[in-house]
Amino acid sequence: MRKEPHVHLTRRERQIMDAVYERGSATVSEVLTELPDAPSYSAVRALMRKLEEKGHLRHDASGPRYVYQATLPRDRARRSALERLMRTFFDGSPSRTVAALLDLPATELTDAELDEVADLIERARRRGR
Asked: What are the pLDDT digits (tens) for 18-45?
């Protein structure tokens, strides 16, 4: 049984994971080209090794290179991170989590986005019945 990856990631680790998710799989060199203000090749390689130790990445050898892939599909990783955030900061309450998100100063939802949220709430109500 594979253990669930640790959720906490540094900014640079998140950037690396974004690059791997975007490509589906990636070598250190490929990730390096995606990073803003990229550190050295060896620094990226060390970070990817750390992400592998944390359980976020796995690798296959392709000749002399390692090709990395995420251990979880992106949607499952998002869900896991969100569940941990909700438990840690919002007492496990989905409504408190959504209320905090909607209360952020930078959150200006369009009418279309508000309609989408309303639709999601309605679908959740129907599932609950």
From this structure: 999 999 999 999 999 999 998 999 999 9
Fold of 11-70: Arc Repressor Mutant, subunit A (1.10.10)
Q: pLDDT by residue (tens digit) across 85-116?
A: 899 999 999 889 988 888 877 777 788 988 99
**pTM check: above 0.70:** no
What is the location of CATH 1.10.10.10 in the chain? 11-70
Yes or no: say if 122 and 114 are a contact pair by the CB < 8 Å rule.
no
Nearest to residue 58, comparing CAs of 115, 128, 105, 2? 2
